[in-house]
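tool=predict chain=A
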Amino acid sequence: MKDSSMRHSASRALALTFALGLFAVSVLPMKAEEDDAYWHTQGNQIVDSHNRPVKISGVNWYGFETTNLVVFGLQQQDYRYILNQIRWYGYNTIRIPFSNQVVETNPVPTAISFTDANGHPINRDLQGKTALQILDRIVRYSGKIGLKIILDNHRSEAGSSAEDSGLWYTPAYPESAWIADWTALAWRYRHNPTVIGMDLRNEPHNAAFSGSCWTGDNAAGAIVGPATNCPIDGPQDPVTNPNPHNWPAAATRAGNAVLAVNPNLLIFIEGVDNYADYSVSGAWNWGWNGSNLIGVTKHPVTLNVANRVVYSPHDYGPSLYQQGWFNSNTTYSSLAGVWDLYWGHVYSLNIAPVWVGEFGTPNANSDVFDTTPGSEGQWFSSLVLYIGSHQGMSWTYWALNGNDWFALLNSNWSGVANPLKQQMLSAIQFHQFDR
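tool=predict ok
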């Protein structure tokens, strides 16, 4: 841990950064004609097909995973208008959550309007289309305007947030279905480099109570399995292994299955919530769901195709939950120490690239930037600075959705909800191809 003078210096530097207007940079549109094809990894960097460093700087656009059965916003605007806004505001990638239910049932969603508030036609080419056919059109238009897509298996059945159990399977959607759905999507987009990768499962968690644990956990095994150290179990089987818990083992099985269909994809692997490594702290390390990547140092995921793994934490502020590190003594340095422990070390030790797949904040200016210790604004502005100070660290903001508490777009999906937040995010966007 850094000494107090260093912490105070970091806090002053953070305030000065905003005072000087570093985050008020202009947004330049990407060139759609620049075809950088599929991406892969080199050390802690993501690189394009020409081995040039790239960075995911994008947004989450959710809805396919919910009972809406399709991305939100289509009752207000045409999907192409929304995609054009994403590109106009400088983002290069969209993380699109889905459920196993929507893949397997492929319904025709009804939460779509075909005329806007002014009587103009919108979304006419989506009429009568299934959820996956609508996803096809989003992918197609995204590629046309230079956006990349990451598909995210957010949960099994249609609903909101992470799976309650913290596992990657349910009785209705066993591991075999989870992998089959992933291979089906890999096959569907196997010739389309707009889809650059698969986020295998949203927020594995509940390691202490029969959920997902990471190999090497010194405590989880005593709770979730017959052996210690989060045993590396095999695939789910109703007789021999009905309740597997080792998340990196499952991610290895799913990642290899996806790469067998399309070896060009990136495989995004989230962490868990808890990890007991007594060589680190002597106790449980409790983090956000999916954010704990402490176990990666000793037990990384190795896939059959090299240079494909990207690790993905999620991080949030005190408006979501009052974690112990949000208090009257919180500084930029103390927050950076938390991030270094949970996931920043994966990047700094050059193990693999890091992509902060979710982080977001409400739309009061004080929720975006604040110098008050332990505040939402201090957390958000500090995280933006932390990501920006690690060249090549990737991210996607949660969420684009105008219906969300952390909305990037306004409620009519026709402009940003908070210009200060957009200015801050624009400072850490990726503009290599704006030339």
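The two ends are 41 Å apart (CA to CA). Residues 332-348 form the longest helix (17 residues).
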